[in-house]
Design brief:
Blueprint (H helix, E strand, L loop, with lengths): L3 H18 L1 H16 L4 E5 L4 H6 L10 E4 L3 H4 L19 H7 L8 E5 L6 H12 L4 E5 L1 H20 L20 E4 L7 E4 L5 E4 L1 H22 L15 H9 L12
Parallel strand pairs: 1-2, 1-3, 3-4, 4-5
Antiparallel strand pairs: 6-7
């Protein structure tokens, strides 16, 4: 059913599934983040497309972790010499080599932990960023759709078999291409369906995505887990206060000063 009640049912089920099924994975991710922050690292949050909203949820906001930096395609213009016009194409996330250019503009520390968000987990920049982090020894936490990953692999295998039957399968990788979930130390399932949108339309297609709804929930569950670990160890968690409350700016500036250019708030 298309309408508020239809999406309400989908949203409630998705939220409840995350709360029930992803607790253990979020806890393992929280341990990785806590250990990294205690060792002087920061969270490097990365997403492209609408997944940027989930990455932003982890960065520079009241009640969030101070040692958290958002990496993004925008960095090529913000901190590099790329023209803003050159990064406006929404398909740029599929361009090979982009992740390395973004990486080289950031100050990545040896104890940084990567949280990489992508519903499909298959675009080139997402996969390459996860691979760069993993190859350099950084923990990688993925927030992605296991359903999309599995169905995409099934479709890619079918396409590969069809190409082979037609005599055009040379050079195809059996099982399809690499995806984010296969590169991560911890995978947190956002519960979104294949293609993300949850309510089918009568003539084909669908409306009302799920991934950002559950992605923001997962981000805050992760923050809560990390802060809980600090408090359980008798340590003050490095958390922002609202800049719109007395003393907020001074509190935040004092914490940020320890990280210098490693935490760039940009437009956070």
């Amino acid at each position: 059913m298309i309408g508020q009640s239809g999406y309400e049912d989908v949203a409630r089920a998705a939220v409840e599934r995350v709360l029930d099924a992803e607790r253990e994975a979020i806890g393992r991710a929280g341990r990785l983040v806590y250990d990294g922050l205690r060792a002087g690292g920061v969270v490097q949050a990365f997403g492209t497309g609408h997944s940027r909203a989930v990455a932003l949820e982890l960065v520079g906001r009241a009640g969030g972790l101070v040692p958290a930096n958002q990496l993004g395609i925008r960095d090529l213009a913000y901190y590099g010499d790329t023209s803003p016009q050159d990064i406006l194409d929404p398909k740029i996330e599929r361009e090979p080599g982009l992740a390395l250019r973004i990486w080289e503009l950031a100050e990545i520390g040896p104890n940084d932990v990567f949280v990489i968000i992508s519903n499909s987990g298959g675009n080139a920049t997402i996969v390459e960023m996860a691979r760069l982090a993993a190859e350099r020894g950084h923990p990688v936490i993925a927030i992605t759709s296991r359903t999309h990953t599995a169905e995409a692999a099934t479709r890619e295998r079918a396409d590969s078999d069809a190409d082979a039957d037609a005599g055009g399968g040379a050079g195809r990788v059996p099982g399809g291409r690499e995806r984010l979930a296969g590169l991560a130390d911890v995978v947190i399932d956002n519960g979104a369906p294949y293609g993300d949108a949850a309510l089918p339309l009568p003539g084909g297609g669908a409306v009302c995505p799920v991934s950002n709804l559950t992605g923001v929930l997962i981000a805050q569950l992760l923050v809560a887990d990390v802060v809980g670990r600090f408090l359980a160890a008798g340590q003050a968690p490095p958390v922002y206060r609202s800049a719109n409350t007395p003393g907020g700016d001074a509190h935040n500036d004092a914490l940020l000063s320890a990280y210098g250019g490693r935490v760039r708030l940009g437009d956070a």
